[in-house]
Design goal:
The chain is α/β, with parallel strands linked by helices. It contains nine helices and eight strands. The chain has helices at 19-28, 44-53, 73-86, 106-123, 135-145, 161-168, 188-192, 224-235, 239-253; strands at 3-5, 31-36, 58-60, 92-96, 127-130, 152-154, 173-177, 200-202. The chain has a five-stranded parallel sheet with strand order 4-5-6-7-8. Helix 8 crosses helix 9. The protein starts with a strand and ends in a 5-residue tail after the last helix.
Length: 258
């Protein structure tokens, strides 16, 4: 199978001791590409090292994660923007708004998010969006900046049918599905019965959100096989069909087919 992990942080500390084995296991189940979303200015060098070590397997994004936004976000963005201009990046990410942990910097997060959305238009790059407890705010920002000019992925979708419909109303956006779909109490399997398969891409969000039977442990790209299995059951498709559809979707949004 040709699997694409569209969102994994395999450059972080949790993988420093066994990344070669993690990569080998991913390739062993058919993972051909892994997209690496940046976190902040400190993570850039680790991200770049991974890409240098595994060319043609890791593909980098560049952005400032919403939970890394501080009062000094304008200077943070200057650093990230210079890096975006100096490298070959496949997307602007991970960007967005997170109102789960802290709402005190909500306005700063919105400004940082909308600035980075404008970069994506300037560079004709997709965005990888973090939107925890902030679906409405993120959609409002997208519409303010210009929804027809933007495209990308709502990363780690785990919301309601109403939230799904609000995202699907944005024609150029897909949802990223990871191990949460295997959690019995998430309700996501039922929600995804209402989602067209051509609006879904696969991800892991490694090292987080490992699927059952590894829930609570470190996640890795090889575990996409469990996400595939769950989606195959939801849509009554073969695993091969789900792999083919989701990889084709990723190719369209990230423009590999060009």
């Amino acid at each position: 199978m040709n699997l694409i992990d569209t969102h994994a942080h395999l450059f972080v500390e949790e993988f420093k001791d066994d990344l070669p084995e993690v990569v080998a296991r991913a390739k062993g189940v058919g993972v051909e590409k892994v997209l690496l979303p940046n976190i902040d200015q400190d993570s850039v060098r680790y991200l770049q090292q991974c890409v240098r070590d595994y060319p043609g397997f890791f593909y980098p994004m560049m952005g400032l994660h919403p939970t890394s936004v501080t009062d000094d976000f304008e200077n943070q963005l200057d650093i990230i923007y210079r890096e975006l201009n100096s490298g070959d990046y496949i997307a602007v990410g991970e960007i967005g708004i997170d109102l789960y942990w802290d709402t005190s910097l909500k306005e700063a997060q919105i400004k940082a998010f909308e600035t980075q959305l404008k970069w994506s238009i300037e560079k004709d790059l997709p965005v990888s969006i973090h939107f925890r407890n902030a679906t409405e705010e993120v959609i409002q920002s997208i519409r303010r900046v210009g929804a027809p000019l933007l495209r990308g992925v709502f990363h780690s979708f785990g919301g309601t049918k109403a939230e799904l419909e609000a995202i699907l109303a944005l024609d150029n956006f897909l949802i990223g599905i990871n191990g949460v779909v295997t959690f019995k109490n998430s309700g996501l399997s039922e929600t995804l019965k209402h989602c067209p398969s051509n609006r879904v891409v696969l991800e892991t969000d490694s090292p987080y959100l490992a699927p059952v039977p590894y829930r609570g442990k470190r996640n890795e790209s090889a575990y996409l096989s469990y996400v595939i299995g769950q989606l195959a059951g939801i849509w009554n498709e073969s695993r091969e069909s789900v792999a083919r559809i989701t990889s084709r979707n990723a190719g369209k949004v990230f423009k590999w087919e060009d």
